[in-house]
Specification:
405 residues, alpha/beta, Alkaline Phosphatase, subunit A, 2 domains, 6-stranded antiparallel beta sheet, 14 strands
Length: 405
C-alpha cells in the first residue's frame, strides 16, 4: 500500500543504529543506558517521540540480519536472509544465483582422540591482520572442490566469508544446511547436513571443505579451525528506492551491515578508520548526495556479547559526545535506535524491546526526561513492530500522501 502514497521531496532522513542498544539492569538496578552519562541524548529525548520496538515478534530473539531488515521497513519473516550473504556482500564479493555464501568464524579447538573440541568460538578475536594472513593461506591452497569454485575473503577480527560457486544455478532450498558452530565451548563442531536432496549435495561439498581447511589450520596457535554459519543463497528483494522512494546510503564499519544495506539497494560509502568521528566526517561529505542515511555503530553489541557492561556504557557515552555533530547537519528526521537488544547480563542478543527515538518538527515530545528503556516506555510511540518505523520516518519527512478520500 505504501508505494501508492509516496511523495518525493528534498527532506533528509538520518537513521543511526547503535547495535544491540537495549539492555537489562546490571548495577544498582540500572541498565547500561541508565548508567551512562548522556546529556545530549537526554536533551534530545525531551523534545522527541520515544518508544520501544519489537524487531521480529514478541519473545523472538533476532539476529542482526532480521533486526536491520525490520528497521529498513521489510518484514523479516517474509525476507529471510542468511548471514553468509550479508557477510559476503559486505566484503565486496560478488554473489550469484549459482552460489552458496557462508559466514565463518575462526575458532580455537583442542583435539581429543583426534576429534576437535571447541575451546573458543572466536579464536580470541584475533587481529584483523592475522585473519588476512590465514585467509590468504587458505585461498592459495584451496581453490576448488569437486568442480565447485571456492572463494574466501577475510572480515574483521575472527570473521571470514566463503562463497561456493557451483557450475549451474542452484534450486531453491539448496542452502538449507545446519551451522557447524555448536554455539557452545566444550563441544565438537557439528557435521553439515542438508535438509533436502539439493542441500545434501551442497553439504557434501561443505564437509570436504571443512576437512581440508582443518588440515591447513591445524598448526595455527589460535585460529586452528573454522566454524561455519548462515548458509545462504542470494535472495530477490525490492530496493528501498522502489519501496520507499528514497535514495539511500550506508556508512558502517563491519562488513555484514554493509552487505545487508547493499542488498536493499543502499550505496555503500567507503571511508578510512573505524571510529564514530570517521563516520561523521564521511556523512558530512555525502550529505548533499542522498536523502536517506544509515549510520551503524557496532561496539555497543560487541561489549554486550562479551558481558562487559562498562564497555557498553563507554560506547554509549562516546556516541553521546559525538551527537551534536550529527545534529549540526539538521536532518529533517532523525531516528536513533538499535537493531535488537544485547544485554550484558545475557552476553547475547535477546527478545527484549529496543529503545527508539524519532526527532522531527512533527512529534509531540515532552513525555520523557532521558533516552533509556524505562523512559522510552513513557513515550508517544508505545511499543511497535520495527518494520513500521520506516512508515513513521517517511510520514515525519512529509513523504506520504493522505490515504483515501
Amino acid at each position: 500500500m505504501i508505494e501508492n502514497l509516496l511523495h518525493r521531496n528534498d527532506s533528509k532522513i538520518l537513521l543511526i543504529v547503535l547495535d544491540g542498544l537495549g539492555g537489562l539492569p546490571v548495577k544498582d538496578g540500572k541498565t547500561e543506558l541508565e548508567i551512562a552519562n548522556t546529556p545530549n541524548l537526554d536533551n534530545l529525548a525531551k523534545v522527541s517521540a520515544l518508544g520501544m520496538h519489537i524487531p521480529v515478534d514478541y519473545g523472538i530473539t533476532p539476529g542482526s540480519g532480521p533486526g536491520h531488515l525490520g528497521l529498513f521497513g521489510y518484514d523479516p519473516l517474509k525476507y529471510q536472509i542468511g548471514r553468509g550473504i550479508l557477510e559476503a556482500l559486505g566484503l565486496g564479493l560478488e554473489v550469484r544465483h549459482t552460489d552458496i555464501a557462508i559466514r565463518g568464524n575462526y575458532a580455537t579447538v583442542e583435539y581429543v582422540n583426534d576429534r576437535p573440541i571447541v575451546k573458543d568460538r572466536r579464536a580470541g578475536r584475533i587481529p584483523t591482520e592475522e585473519n588476512r594472513r590465514i585467509t590468504k593461506k587458505l585461498q592459495e591452497s584451496l581453490r576448488e572442490i569437486d568442480g565447485v569454485q571456492v572463494i574466501i575473503a577475510p572480515g574483521m577480527e575472527h570473521r571470514v566469508a566463503i562463497v561456493l560457486r557451483f557450475p549451474e544455478e542452484l534450486p531453491e532450498g539448496s542452502d538449507e544446511i545446519n551451522d557447524t558452530d555448536p554455539q557452545e565451548v566444550g563441544k565438537e563442531p557439528l557435521k553439515p547436513v542438508g535438509r533436502n536432496p539439493n542441500a545434501e549435495r551442497v553439504a557434501r561439498v561443505v564437509e570436504k571443505f571443512v576437512e581440508k581447511v582443518s588440515q591447513l589450520l591445524k598448526e595455527e596457535p589460535k585460529a586452528n579451525y573454522l566454524l561455519l554459519r548462515g548458509f545462504a543463497q542470494k535472495p530477490r528483494i525490492p530496493t528501498m528506492e522502489e519501496r520507499f522512494g528514497v535514495k539511500p546510503c550506508c556508512i558502517a564499519v563491519y562488513p555484514m551491515y554493509k552487505g545487508l544495506a547493499s542488498l536493499v539497494g543502499m550505496d555503500i560509502i567507503k571511508f578510512e578508520g573505524n571510529t564514530i568521528q570517521g563516520e561523521i566526517n564521511t556523512l558530512k561529505k555525502v550529505w548533499s548526495d542522498y536523502d536517506f542515511f544509515f549510520v551503524h555503530i557496532k561496539k555497543t553489541d560487541s561489549y554486550g556479547e562479551d558481558g562487559n557492561w562498562e564497555g557498553k556504557v563507554s560506547v554509549i557515552e562516546d556516541f553521546d559526545r559525538h551527537l551534536p555533530q550529527f545534529l549540526e547537519l539538521k536532518p529533517d528526521v532523525l531516528a536513533i535506535t538499535g537493531d535488537h537488544s544485547t544485554p550484558s547480563k545475557l552476553k547475547g542478543h535477546s527478545w527484549h524491546p529496543v529503545p527508539l527515538l524519532i526527532n522531527s518538527p512533527y512529534v509531540l515530545g515532552g513525555t520523557s526526561e532521558r533516552f533509556t528503556e524505562r523512559e522510552c516506555l513513557k513515550g508517544e510511540l508505545g511499543i511497535l513492530p520495527a518494520q513500521k518505523i520506516m512508515n513513521l520516518l517517511l510520514a515525519n519527512a512529509l513523504r506520504l500522501k493522505k490515504f483515501g478520500a
